[in-house]
Amino acid sequence: MTTARAHTNIALVKYWGKRDRQLMLPQTDSLSLTLNEFYATTKVEFDPSLTADQITIDGQAVSGKGQAKITAFLDIVRQLSGKNDFAYVQSTNHVPMAAGLASSASAFAALATAAAGAAGLQLSRRELSRLARRGSGSATRSIYGGLVEWHRGTDDLSSFAEPIMEQVDFPIEMLAILVNTKKKKVSSRSGMQSSVETSPYYPAWRQVVVDDMKAMKKAIADRDIPTIGHIAEENAMRMHALTLSSDPAYTYFDAETLTAIRLVHELRDSGINAYYTMDAGPNVKVIYDRHDRQAILDKLSPVFGRERLVVSQPGPGVTIIDD
Ligand code: DP6
């Protein structure tokens, strides 16, 4: 039996599209910040007496599509290890509120590490990153803490994440505005596929990411939070332009998303270096220097309520937890 904990990550240069859906190879590189506040803890135990995988998430039995996805992932671990038993999987999401920020990144990074351990596989972090990738692309990066780069690679062996700065030594912070925590209508998986197949802007996006990766790595080396924030914001909006330019078009924006964006612009107009990013849902994440935290909370709290604002520092990579 092995228990592992993995933290979620938010991309500063987004992954939005696969070129191999079987091996989960991405179209582009990407780069993220692992967050301290949001994580999943997952326990795996293989048991010869089981006739199917038994999965619970936050105490609820998982069936249907969710179960199929996890069983398909465990099949990869079974194949790698030669262990043919089914498994008990118990996972708990740790989020400050029952919020929509429990993500597949922390889930599959924790599952990969716990399942590999329980199956007796001795995997390096690079191998764990490649394994986590097979569950969910963003999970590739959650094996590591801090600022992390996922190399798109050319095949299964070369597509893995690597830390750029695991112990972040400058005061970057992220604040999540919980705009709407309901389940999203278009999953990232189907959304990105539609963008790759139908958006005429997709070829331009590939070039955007090449340029942004380079500029982002320089900004990180310079510990330049305004430039990091600026690139992340521009990159996120260009990713969201792929959703609007798909056929059929779709969007992850809510009315309140636009309110949050307007407030971040107002903060900037008043001289505070705050920037926003968004993933496949309406929640907005604000990037800033922690010395500006109070000014940002003062601006956002009257509109959203303090309980819908979650401040997070950079977080650690995956860990095995002793029972
Ligand atoms: C917008 O990793 O959830 O958060 O690989 O199909 O499981 P699958 O998708 P997922 O997509 C994440 C998309 C994103 C950007 C990012 O995390 O880079």
UniProtKB/TrEMBL annotation:
Keywords: ATP-binding, Lipid biosynthesis, Lipid metabolism, Lyase, Nucleotide-binding
Biological process, per Gene Ontology: isopentenyl diphosphate biosynthetic process, mevalonate pathway
NCBIfam families: mevDPdecarb (TIGR01240)
Entry-linked Pfam families: MDD_C (PF18376), MVD-like_N (PF22700)
Family per similarity comment: Belongs to the diphosphomevalonate decarboxylase family.
EC numbers for this chain: 4.1.1.33
Domain Diphosphomevalonate decarboxylase-like N-terminal: 6-161
Higher taxonomy: Bacteria, Bacillati, Bacillota, Bacilli, Lactobacillales
GO cellular component terms attached to this protein's record: cytosol
Protein name listed in UniProt: diphosphomevalonate decarboxylase
InterPro entries xref list: GHMP_kinase_C_sf, Mev_decarb, Mev_diP_decarb, MVD-like_N, Mvd1_C, Ribosomal_Su5_D2-typ_SF, Ribsml_uS5_D2-typ_fold_subgr
Residue span(s) of domain Mvd1 C-terminal: 175-306
Gene Ontology molecular function terms on file: ATP binding; diphosphomevalonate decarboxylase activity
Organism superkingdom: Bacteria
